[in-house]
Amino acid sequence: MNPYSVAFTHCSSYDLDTVQQAMMQQIDTLGGLESLVKPGDRVLIKPNFIAPRPADQAVQTHTSVILAAARLLKDYGARPFVGDSPAWGGVLACARAQDLEDPLKHLGIDLIQLDTPRITAIGLGHTRVGLSAHALDAHAIFNLPKLKAHQQMVGTFAIKNMFGCVSGKQKPYWHFARGASMAQFARFLIHVYAAIPPVLNLVDGIVGMDRNGPINGRPRPLHWLIAGADPIAVERACARLVGLPREKLPIVQAARAMHYGCPSDDQVHMVGVPWSDITCLTDFEIPDLIPVRFTLGRVLKSVIKGRMVALKNRVR
Length: 316
Prior knowledge:
- By secondary structure, this protein is an alpha/beta fold.
- The protein is built from ten helices and twelve strands.
- The strands form two sheets. Strands 1, 2, 3, 4, 7, 8, 9, 10, 11 and 12 form a ten-stranded mixed sheet that branches. The protein has a two-stranded antiparallel ribbon with strand order 5-6.
């Protein structure tokens, strides 16, 4: 299999059986589950849980995409669990907002806050970052991002979702410490991703989001699941789908400068569905951009709030 292979699979709705069938077809096109995980592996399913919003708002990875991945992995004999460290609210609040908690319990699949940071040296500068031990100790990671426009990074497709493995309220700090420019923050995001690389990036593009993403944008029906092992190939393919010039995407440009991942659009190897069968958008709207860097006051406020929430949970 070409390392820059990307599979597009048409999916007309979020009906769970429809999504699972499309996902199975997609993974088979990329070499099958056996090429990604082994029976018995503990597999982190990493959705985009950013804030507790219902599924129809297209803020988070849809419930059906998460459940389809969980069922496929469990039926194969792996031991999946779902985890994230949301920017707003905890993982349980985000799951409850889109009616995911009970279906996961029915499947016997744990829902875990990606806490318990373990200091990990990332990048050539060996920057010390607290990555969740739950992610570091998993045998494999299925990265399930949501296709969205983004007020700080133009668009996000594969790489940035793994920032959720940075535990808890450390994320605002890194917005401050590495947010002097989009380029600097993009390099940091790539280093985080490379420290815990998923075996598969499977993007929920059945309904994406444009305008004021990643939270307050407009749901955009696209009817595609997009998947591949190489995150930059996936970033390039998703950007092409929604008509975003790759030279405007900080993550793609940072990856090119770092010689990381798929080096050009020409190297993206489409499997399953050729580009000639895909209608790319011409009206996908990106938001007015805001600074990546958080103010020191916002960082301190976030840290204090995080500690209060942790204390409240311990008291319970």
